[in-house]
Amino acid sequence: MKTYLKNLVEINESKQSRWFAYFIQFLIIFSVITFSIETLPDLKPQTKVVLKAIEAFCVVVFTFEYLARIYVADSKPKFIFSFFGIVDFLAILPFYLSFGIDLRTLRLLRMFRLFRLFKLVRYNKAMRHFANAMKLAKEQIILFMMITLMLIYFTAVGIYYFENEAQPEHFSSIFSSLWWSIVTLTTVGYGDVYPITVGGRIFTFFMLLIGLGVVAIPTGIISSSLTKAVEPQDEVKEE
Predict the structure, then answer these.
(1) How far apart are CA 228 and CA 94, in angstroms?
(2) How many angstroms separate the CA atoms of 222 and 128, rounded?
(3) Burial of 163 (0-12, 13-18, 19+ CB in 10 A)
(4) Residues in Cβ contact with 56 at an 8 Å cutoff, skipping those fewer than 6 apart
C-alpha cells in the first residue's frame, strides 16, 4: 500500500503518477477560480451551495494528498517543515479553521487558499527549474537584499536632511522618508512626494541611477542561476 501511494503522489514516469499530477493541477486552478467567483456580489444561494460543495471536495482531495505524502515520506518531519509541506498545509488550513464557524476575523484566513497556486510548482517542470534557480542564487539574493535594505535606509536619511526644512509635512522624520526612498529606488516614482530643494534633486538623480541597478542586478542573478539549473538536465537528455 505504501509503495503504491509513494508511486502515486510522488512525481515519476508512471502513468498513474502523471494522471494524478494532472488531476491535482486541475483542482488547484479550479479551486482558485471558484475562490474568485465567491467574491462576486449578489450570488444566488444555489450558487453559494455549489461553490461550497466544490471547495469541500477540493479540500478532501488536497487533504488526502497531504496525508499521503506524510505517510510515504522517508523523513516525516523533514517533509512537514519543508517548503511544499508548509504550502500543502496552508492550502487546506482555512477550510478547517472556518468550517462551521462564522467569525469575521477568520475570513482573512481564506487568503491562504491562494497558497494552492504554489502547489503548481511541484508539478510544472519550468517552475521546478525556477525553484532550483532560486536555491542556487539564494546566498547572492540574501546578500543583495541586505545591501538593498541598507541602501533604502541610507537614502531615507539623505533625503531627510535635504528636504526636512523645506517639506516638513512629507519628510518629518527618517521613517516618513522611507516611503520616498522605496518608491525612488524601485523606480516606481508615484510623484506624491518629491524633492524641491537643489540638493535634494541632485541627491535624487544619483539615487535614481542606483535604483536602475537595484532592479537589474537580481534579474541577472536569477537569469544566470536559471541557466545553470536547466543546463544539467539538458546534458542528460543529450547523452
Answers:
(1) 38
(2) 14
(3) buried
(4) 95
Instruction: Provide the 10 A C-beta neighbour count for residue 93.
Output: 15
pTM: 0.57
Question: What is the rounded average pLDDT of the residues 29-42?
Answer: 84
Q: How many residues does the chain have?
A: 239
The grid coordinates of residue 204 equal 535624487
Closest among 197, 155, 163 to 179, alpha carbons compared? 155
Kindly state the cell numbers that stand for 43: 450570488
C-alpha cell at 92: 487546506
User: Residue 94 corresponds to which cell in the numbers above?
Assistant: 482555512
Q: Which residue has the cell 491535482?
A: 24
* Residue 239 identity (one-letter amino acid): E
pLDDT tens-digit map of 56-82: 898 899 899 899 989 988 888 998 998
